[in-house]
Design goal:
Elements (H helix, E strand, L loop, with lengths): L1 H25 L8 H23 L1
Helix pairs in contact: 1-2
Keywords: Membrane, Transmembrane, Transmembrane helix
Length: about 60
């Protein structure tokens, strides 16, 4: 249970790291919106990853 929760936190946090890296590299050329839209984007990326894993496992 703890390991799964920690893994989820790492996966969630890594999306912020990737988005921050994109911001550092491209600066104002990329605009993703505010906190809410970026949070929704991160959640959708996690859900898509889960769906693909389930699809490939079946």
């Amino acid at each position: 249970m703890v390991a799964g929760s920690l893994l989820w936190v790492v996966l969630f946090g890594s999306k912020f790291l990737v988005l921050e890296s994109v911001d550092l590299v491209f600066g104002d050329q990329v605009s993703l919106g505010g906190f809410l839209s970026v949070s929704v984007l991160i959640i959708m990326l996690l859900l898509a990853r889960t769906a693909v894993r389930r699809l490939l496992r079946a």
